[in-house]
Amino acid sequence: MQPNLGFLLGSIVKIVLVLAWVYGLLQVMGSASKWVRIAGIVAAFGIVQLAISIKIGNQPILNNFDTGLLFQGATMAMVALGLNLIYGFNGQFSLGQYGFYGLGAYAAAYATYKWTNEKTASALLVLLLFVILAGAVIIGLRRFLKRFTALPVLSAFTLYLIGVIIAGAVAVVAGNALASVVNPLFGTKEAPGILASNAALQAAFVVAVICAGAFAAVVSFLFGLPVLTLGSDYFGIATLGFTIVVNTLLVNSDTILPFPEMKGGRGMIGIPKVTTWFWAFLFLLIVIIVMRNMIYSSTGRATMSVREDETAAKAMGIDIAGNKLLAFVVGSLFAGLAGGVYAHYIGFLSPDTFGFLPGFNPLIIIVFGGLGSMTGTIAASFGWLFFLEGLLRVLLGQMGTEAPTWRFVLYPIALLLLMLLRPQGLLGKIEWGFLRAPVVKPRATTATAAK
Amino acid sequence: MQQASTAQPLAPPKRRSGAQLVWIGRGFLIILAALITIVLVRNFVENPRLFIQIVLSGLQLGFVYALIALGYTMVYGIVRLINFAHGDVFMVGSMVSFFAVSRFSMHLWLKNAMPDLPDWLSTVAGAVLVIVLSMAVCAVLAIVIERVAYKPLRNSPRIAALITAIGVSFFLEYFGALYFVFSPRFIPYERPFEVTTWYIKDGIHLLESGQAPPEGAIIFSSIFVIIVATSLLMQALLQFLVRRTRMGKAMRASAVDKPTARLMGVNVDRVISFTFALGAAFAGLAGVLYAIAYPSVSTLMGITPGLKAFVAAVLGGIGSIPGALVGALIMGQAEALTMAYISTPMRDAVAFTILIVVLLVRPTGIFGEPEREKA
User: Fold this and answer.
1) Are residues A377 and A80 in contact, defined by beta-carbon separation less than 8 angstroms?
2) Whole-complex ipTM
3) Dihedrals φ, ψ of A147, to 5°?
4) Quick one: which H or E segment has residue A55?
5) Over the stretch B209-241, which tens digit does the pLDDT of each residue have?
6) Closest CA of chain A from B372, distance in Å
7) So where are chain A's domains?
8) Rounded to two decimals, what is the model's pTM?
9) Contact at CB, B14 and A147, closer than 8 angstroms
């Protein structure tokens, strides 16, 4: 019954350390010198890697539980950054982020599941071909449809839908045909072929994760095209519906959808655990860099102007519909990537993970961290996981048997207090290091040169 | 002439309006509607009795949703807040009636106090007592929630109030799930009165308990009649309240323009509290009726009906009272028919698909007024 004071202190130290690590990472990434940047990133990666692998006595410095929190923090940061792009920077209130997260996770997991357990590349190839073909169809159709000035959105949606369905059919046929050519490379059990090696699995994992992101992006394009024309709250409800639809489909993936390997509501097992800290860190880094560069480009300024005032943005010649769609697709892409990384870390997927109630988590995180603050999002993702999943769960678990319930009693109270006391989020609009708006050096004009 | 020929390669591709291509989208919708109609008509022809039975069960659900949807539509109409906690207020309504009936036997108080009353009168009075208690508790709860969680945030960005609404919703669900409050389990619900069932075949007959209904009969129960009657009554009551009373006028004024309403002497804060309380009372009533119709309670029971009711409110046009009823009836039918003819787990998916399609065709819902440009 006695609360464990040592654990409490240790957890607080851990949270502070993780936040310090995020701060350090962002600071070195923002450094002016290229070598400092590279060294700093390698050091940030290395510190955590060392903490995971070095053992003091019999126990690694970061035990399995903390490592799990770290991985989940990294994926949550990706998901939340995507949502922050959609909601924080573009002002489109979306509750559908977990739907795309789930889609990405299941798509990537299915591809590598087939790869390792059934020694066939068919799922991966079908996914890859679908993503490529559907992307080509969408981009091609978009260029074609640009010549119409007032095309009804429903008609455009129908055309895209037909195109993507055709792409999907072609991908299934071609992928399976291609797979029968590739599959002998797996070899037999006695003589494993080239594709059965670990390096090939790693490559397949990377391809699967990227394809999962692209898959989520294709779906989000199809979904967002008609739905983004609705007003903000209606869009929120429609995206909430998307999460619920995806969840329902995942629960019935073995009966309604033709994927018996996903095992429906019982949860998918047997996913190869390929995600190492290297991959999680790399994908997080890529997402951060892409996001930051996008925000501080002209596209990002257009995105933010849509949030501030649509009419004024339109008057400035910004393609509002296109801009909303871009932010939505990129945000979903991040969620899909995160899903792929998460699936291969945890090795077990359950539809409950991507349900309607956990779907509020990224929203709460970005509000905690501050809407429109990338730093806040990343820090809040890590801090939130270490606090809620790490500290509170263990601490309450030691105090009684009703821990999970008490956790969800205390957490809304904290949420209420935060909203009442600091509605702009913990960090507000503060950005650290790399994520600060870049200072454009004034060029040496003739006037300054004359001085 | 020469100028035109030199400009030719640089000219942008000819831009057409594309408005004539609207048939593609319409065709898509028509094909969708035709498919649904074919499925429904085929099933109706195959077994009309079963079809009508399913429609009746859909009506029962729909009228419960209509009661909950009233709260959503009123609150959204006035404060523009998606009150996620409303579904949990509905849950509290059934919980209160559960405790009143099972713990305190409240439905028997009158019977015990005055044993010489006719049996039917004491049963009705007991049930009404339980229902009124639930409605009152829900109304007080809603006022407390509004004062504590929403009112301080009225001038903050709207997301803040939304997040607190989610927080309140979580709090009610999981606080109720604690063992000393309720428990996380589903618990069978003891009804304040016995539900009687009738069947229609050559006239209306009473179905004795344990008796199998005869072949080809349509069954309905007293709770079905009660739900339909109460829901319609409450709709009428609310219409009267909003259209004919001073408070209703104040509510309509606050919905249109709060600062101006304030200038005209309307106590907007009181109006908002009243709206929350009224919506919560309806939700409490719906909670009791829902628990009597589907006799099992749990702390998470409010999520799905709450969401469905919200979807119904949006579908009918948020802010519109007849819209809430129509939307709720559509939701109920969609749910019942999907469960019967497509597949049970797809019912939520179908509900949201209908919502998305309707919003695409009519962006403000069936009865919604087009959004005015803000000055």
Assistant:
1) yes
2) 0.83
3) -75, -10
4) strand A55-56
5) 777 777 778 888 889 999 999 999 999 999 999
6) 12
7) 5-119+187-435
8) 0.88
9) yes
